Amino acid sequence: MIRAVVTGLGAVTPFGLGVKTYWNGLAAGLCAIRPVTLLDTQGLRCRLAAEVPEVIPGSRRRSRADRLALAAAVEALEDAHLERAERAEVAVVVGAVGGGMFEAEEWYWREAGRGAVEPDRRALGAVLPWSHAEVVANALGLYGPRETLTTACSSGAAALAVASELVTTGMVDLVLAGGVDAITRICYLGFNALKLLDPEPCRPFDRERRGMSIGEGAGFFVLESAEHAAARGARVYAELAGYGMTSDAYHVTSPDPEGRGMARAMVEALTRSGLNAADVGYANAHGTATPQNDRMEGLALRAVFGAEGLLVSSTKSMIGHTMAAAGSLEAMATVLALVHDVIPPTVHLDSPDPEVAFDCVPHRARHAAIEHAISNSFGFGGQNVTLLFRRACT
Amino acid sequence: MQAKEVLDELKAILVSRLKFDPRRAAEMTADTPLPKGIDGAIGLDSLDFIELSIAIEERFGVVLDESEDLAPHFASLDALCRFIVDRTNGG
Amino acid sequence: MSLPEGRRRVVITGVGAIGAPFSGDSAALGASLANPQPCFGTLAPGALAGVMDGVDARRLSRVCRLAVAAARLAATDAGGEADAPLGVVVGTELGDLHSTRDFADGYLARGQAGLSALLFPNTVMNTMAAATSIALQARGLSLTINAPGIPGELAVARAAASIAARRAERLLAGGVDELDPYVVEMLGRMGVESGGRGEGAAFLMLETLDGARARGARILGEILAVATGALPARPVGVGRSNRSRVVQLALERTGGRVQDVGWVYASLGGDAARDAWERSVLEAALAPHRPPLAALGMLWGQHAGLGALRIAAAAWTARSGLLPVTSLDEPGVRPRVNITRVSAGLGLVHGVARGGAHAAIVVGPAPVG
């Protein structure tokens, strides 16, 4: 049986550039949700977001999202210490939703009054989600299988799931996989219109929660066959031991009210990993802080794991909902939790919702040595993905 | 505004924003129930009600406060008309 | 045929398509392939009449309707229990750009009051897969693959690999794209030719061989192997290298050799530079062997669903022994089609996209016994 292990990480997050900055922010329980600077939010009910605060490296000719992807991808590949010669075989799997819409919107908003007939070639050429995989693969010389997946809010997780499939089925030895999203007007306005955003920083699992905070960023993994990693002496962060992927087939925006699709995704991840519920010590929740999601997810977690013994936290409380990047950035938080023996907290959790029957690690990170952890991503339209990670043997 | 005017405007909104067929909208009466799951209702769900709220706010200037229990007002076209007439006449 | 341990065989049991050249099931596809007529561009008005019966289509955007309609046709064509576990894998190049623009226009015209909650979910291109899952109550995995050039091929490849790896039992796999007039206009202004495009959707029902046999399903063909990779090229560019291991990998996975390839369905579609590149790649992969080649994209407008139809067509050729060989000798002139008899062998479905994505899918006849 071929096992898929994590040998490289790269990130650009609302805390700044790099994985180290990301983990330091999570471990310190910092909140990166602040007033929006990149868009005009005049008159909107919610005017906060978790933007990447630093200048993203890369040519200004590239879209913001392409630059996020490239920066995180470069860090991950360098972190994995892959030789140049090995890059040609590397597969690329990217979870993406907004693509280069931020720049395309700039053009459209500016030109709408004139009928928007003269295209901005650069912006439109990079608008579709497939742009990131094409840019990253060709800039870095990666010519293995190439896929861009769009599964709404679980895209980053779906990318890791499919990437692990490529490895465990023996199709490739190495995959660069992750998710990326830059803030866009359409996303921000849309969630505002649906009244799904909290005017204050979001409060997952809190009794007073009122909705999400939007974020942006990119998180990339190098996934590798365990044998290949061992042969070249690569440092292993953790094993991606299994995953579950299901659909609610219920409603285009609302989750199944009993959380059945969510529960099935978690059970599938356990089964595929050959584990029982009791083997899992930590769940990084989807935890968007909408009244609905947190309630359904709480029910689903309870149905699968019982009411006790599982630590649960939502890192969206710190970096917001980073859309297509969420699945991969939260998987990264999960992996780093296993590596550092530290569970990132749920911040703003002043009055835990009694309906959610778990210790949600309020306010401060907690020391805990965990053997197995899961990361949940439950996308719009009922697209559920659960990833299960096993601590690396040292 | 009069209830009849409001009813006509609501039907126009059901066509333009909620994508109902104009013939279907023409057949609707004040008694027509709205929410999904009720016999004879036109089958609106939570997403439709959000769209309807946005449209009502735009067309009638009536702001729907989500902390209020709005379900009774959305039970039928008649209930919704009376609610809107009420709010636009300073009730 | 050698299979890695634990992997399962994948068969095609249904086809559904909505498109300008034809709409219908595997029989309709066969009839169209036996007598193919050139057909590009948009669907005739009323093309969706009757195929949405029983579906609450009120909120479905046009591109979602195309997907749901084709998926339903494929499910009906395949038969079987309506509530057997089912997933969907949808390929698309353009997604629902029409709805995205409508959503933006609403805001630009009327501010927040002009925002549509109903349109918003369509701005994420998993909307077609979500609509299909809901309409068919498909609760298995759901994936949307967005790619230039060959999204349908990649979707079927992903689905076949998932079933082979025991990740799914039954999957509807294919693609959908619509031709939005504004998008076409912008592409034109950017110098991207759209004359070879079409719109529509097509899905294949894929399932395990054992499952198909157990329920007495009619089997249309088998997907023997898939392989994907990429050639060096700038994004949306045409590369110079024609060397890729993808075809070789696909054949290795079936235990076959280059000489076993009896016919090819290629992704050629009238983009001269890209077509020349694909022909060079194919030649490098198969030389000195030169199996006859069909290029459906020279006859029918390209959209993501055509990728799935190429695979179904390869299975049809395995059953019928006929191939609509496209003569490609005179660029710019309507290609001639010769319905040719082919001898037994493997079908190779081949695709190369601008930017370098490369796919090879090996198709064989329905297994006997």
Q: What labels would you give this structure?
A:
heterotrimer, A: 394 residues, alpha/beta, Peroxisomal Thiolase, Chain A, domain 1, two-stranded antiparallel sheet, 12 helices, globular, C: 369 residues, 2 domains, eleven-stranded mixed beta sheet, two-stranded antiparallel ribbon, 10 helices, 33% helix
SSE layout and pairing:
The complex is a heterotrimer of chains A (394), B (91) and C (369).
Chain A: E1 4-13, E2 16-17, H1 19-28, E3 34-35, E4 48-49, H2 64-79, E5 91-96, H3 101-111, H4 121-125, H5 131-140, E6 146-149, H6 155-168, E7 174-181, H7 185-193, E8 217-225, H8 226-231, E9 238-247, H9 260-273, E10 280-284, H10 291-305, E11 311-313, H11 316-319, H12 326-340, E12 342-343, E13 366-367, E14 372-379, E15 383-391
Parallel strand pairs in A: 5-6, 5-7, 10-11, 10-14
Antiparallel strand pairs in A: 1-2, 1-8, 1-9, 3-4, 7-8, 9-15, 12-13, 14-15
Helix pairs in contact in A: 2-5, 6-12, 9-10
Chain B: H1 3-16, H2 22-27, H3 46-60, H4 77-88
Chain C: E1 10-19, E2 24-25, H1 26-34, H2 62-78, E3 87-92, H3 97-110, H4 127-136, E4 142-146, H5 151-164, E5 170-177, H6 181-189, E6 200-208, H7 209-214, E7 221-230, H8 246-254, E8 261-266, H9 272-286, E9 293-294, H10 304-320, E10 322-326, E11 337-341, E12 346-352, E13 357-364
Parallel strand pairs in C: 3-4, 3-5, 8-9, 8-12
Antiparallel strand pairs in C: 1-2, 1-6, 1-7, 5-6, 7-13, 10-11, 12-13
Helix pairs in contact in C: 1-10, 2-4, 5-10
